[in-house]
From TrEMBL:
Domain spans labelled TRAP C4-dicarboxylate transport system permease DctM subunit: 13-525
Lineage of source species: Bacteria, Pseudomonadati, Pseudomonadota, Alphaproteobacteria, Rhodobacterales
Membrane-related topology note: Multi-pass membrane protein
Domain of life: Bacteria
Cell membrane in keyword set: yes
Compartments where located: Cell inner membrane
Function noted in UniProt: Part of the tripartite ATP-independent periplasmic (TRAP) transport system.
InterPro entries the UniProt entry points to: DctM, TRAP_DctM
Transmembrane segments: 6-39, 66-84, 108-138, 150-176, 182-206, 237-259, 279-299, 311-330, 336-360, 372-390, 410-439, 460-482, 502-523
Protein name per Swiss-Prot or TrEMBL: TRAP transporter, DctM subunit
A GO CC term assigned to this protein in UniProt: plasma membrane
Amino acid sequence: MVDIGTLSLIILLAMFALLAIGMPLGFASAFLAVVTLILKFDVDLLFNTFGRGPLSVLAQAVYRQMTNYVLISIPLFIFMAALLERCGIARDMYSSLNVWLARTRGGIAIVTSIMAVIMAAMSGIIGGEVVLLGLIALPQMLRLGYNQNLAIGTICASGSLGTMIPPSIVLIFYGLVTETSIKALFTASFLPGFMLASFFIIYIVVRTRITPSMAPLPEADPDAPEGSEKALMFLGFLARMACWVVGVLIIRALFFTLTGANVPREGEDPILLGMVSDFPYLIGAFAIALATIFFVVGRERTSRGWNMGKGLVAPIVVIGVVLGSIYGGITGITEAAGMGVIAVFVIGLFRREMTFIIVWDSLMRTLKSTGTIIWVTIGAAALAAAYTLAGGPTYVANLITGADLPTMGIILIMMFIFLIMGMFMDWIGIVLLIMPVFLPIVTQLPAEEIGFFASIDARYIPIWFGVVFCMNMQVSFLSPPFGPAAFYLKSVAPPGIELTDIFKGFLPFIALQLCALSVLLMYPPIVTLFL
């Protein structure tokens, strides 16, 4: 029988050794789970009481993870991302964004970042975004003479925003493992996610202003609108889009009124923008949008602006369906994922781009990706259960708290461990293996001592820690030697671009991610602003 300290060291070294020789994380975790029980409880105890002994704890842990209803949302989101990648929705979105920012210094890199934010809000899948941006944006930037490091860093850093921006699969998994409200996690991650995206865009703008040769301007199109004319067309596009959105909200509020669903009831939250009291505001917004079209912009400019920007309509619809159904209280996470798949499928049919081959290929890619996630989940859940049964979490907690460090010192050590583990291990394994150990420690720390410039309410600590963890995983997607974003981009990059070139382009963006992580650590209330 091995003591828990020695056992912890054996597990850590064995995990790195198994990953180094190429064993998949799921199988390595499952193997170490059995080894942990054998070293701790002896072989006879495992098999003489089969079905009632320590092995049954592993089976229960795996069963509990695999029967969680929210887990179904993950293959649905992957399927939706695969459909989006194969259809022309993303291509048209890029073209529309490029129309408005083509003559801006670094405009194509900015368009790429904005496109990544929109794609992240549609699907929450990281690998697909990097591949798609690599196929669409990288050749365009290199053709126009953009600095290679800037182009590579923009694509991979922006493409990994699906980790932070809802509906993030990382947040879904964290919520499942820690039993934290996924809706609250989505709400809390909005501001940090867009803050990180804004850091990328600000960096691109400043860097290209300082060194214009990094982002040459394309040749001017004599037929393209310029200056105030383009601004008015964009305003017309926004006004027409607002008419459609507010019109749908008015119809929705009418439906709730006719069915009596929006009658105020004690103990129930009012329906967002669906109550009778909301009608004056909705009608006023609709009137302002119409007045903008007819009296400010003009119908002809609005029509031209709509044609230039209509590639943004389909993504906005998908985002509205997925996030609107969640925050509108219509469905849960899983049902919203299913509605998103249907929305993409119907849009593809209307565009006459949804074919049997696209659907079949998307299903096969979903099956492969989901299979990988499921096996990692099974292995990591088994190892986490075995280590817990052996007393590991208590040992680690006593080790950390016994070091007599200040509260933020303990959290910074955890951040360092996350960053190191993220260099070598998949985020799923980190969530399942480390989070059950770290989160109970964090929730026992004094809430008033968390943060440097402000503290956080104790009830929001699990949510804040989840968002901080996701920001750590943002860094891990770019961190050498196994940063997955580099390998995703390498699979579609031109032959002359090597992995060393890709990792070199990451460096400024890793620094920006660490700055964003520092903001979350120094000022935790930024996470709870909308809760």
